[in-house]
Amino acid sequence: MNYSNTEKIYIYALLIITSFLFFFPLFWAISASFSPNTYIFKHLFPFTLKALIPLEFTTDAYVNLWARDFDLAIRNSIILSVVGTLGGGIISSTAGFAFGRFEFFGKNIIFGTVLLSFMVPADMLAIPTFILVTELGWSNTWQGLLVPSLAHSLAIFLFTQFFKGIPQEMIDAAKVDGASWFRIFVSIAIPISKPVMLSAGLLLFIFQWTAFFWPLLIAPSPGLRVIQVAISQAVLDYNVQWNELLAGATLAAAIPILLILPFQKYYIEGVSGSIKG
Q1: Of 122, 123, 107, 217, nearest to 156 (Cα)?
Q2: What would the pLDDT profile of 70-89 be if each residue is shown by its tens digit?
Q3: Rg (CA), the chain
């Protein structure tokens, strides 16, 4: 589609304005994290450009975070996110392959239930899941943090739609050569599913990285505290340490941004390809 110069100017102007609206809170949060707590809102109401500049530059917020073992929370979140992404990827891909290539009794009902679970608010499932996990003796353990979130309905949906689109000729040719279903899955389905694997992997990583309510509920132990829970410690009984809260939020946002930006093209291709399929 060809655009006139005037149309291009309007499009670029709209993109610039939209980008500013999206990135302004991040710029302000970074600036405020390097300011004393009493200076954060000083130039925000009414707004002046000084709000984006740490006039009283200090790193006290980051020092205080580290004094409360924030590095341990980052490590815990990285472990939880990486293991959860790998485990969730294995479960989602195998379930997606079963839904996408096999016909069995109750398939549509089971798949519909999987999709329905994505629409149910997580808070509604928290209490029964908590009771189950506690009965298993997994309270304050890595198993309790990780296992309930391994199966992700949206990731299963992405894999299912992608595997449905694999040409039947490829499957038939592999069967003629004597390949088992496991061999077909490992040697054919997985190698060509890199776009959706990347999309589902990023989705699972962000899901684990941003988890707050479940880790707070099942693992209150300081040794298992994740980054989102650690950030909330800046909210005290009688006041809020806004600079520490924003410093923690800045660090928490950095890793997902660094992950998504290089792979955003492939992420979009994987999601759109699965939906079209």
Answers
A1: 107
A2: 889 999 999 999 999 999 99
A3: 23
Evaluate if pTM is beyond 0.70: yes
Determine the CATH number of domain 61-276.
1.10.3720.10
The structure tokens listed for 193 are 């599913």
CATH 1.10.3720.10 in the chain: give the residue spans: 61-276
pLDDT tops 90 at residue 24: no
d(CA 65, CA 248): 7
Q: Which long-range contacts (CB under 8 A, 24 or more apart) does 101-105 make?
A: 101/163, 101/164, 101/166, 101/171, 101/189
Please enumerate in sequence order all residues whose Cβ is within 8 A of that of 178, keeping only pairs 6 or more positions apart, or say none: none
CB–CB of 210/81 below 8 Å? no
Assess whether the previous peptide bond of 46 is cis (omega < 30° from 0). yes
Question: Tokens standing for 148?
Answer: 């309930």
Mean pLDDT of 186-213: 88
How many helices and strands, by DSSP H and E, does the chain display?
13, 0
pLDDT at 186 over 60: yes
Assigned token pair, 47: 């707004």
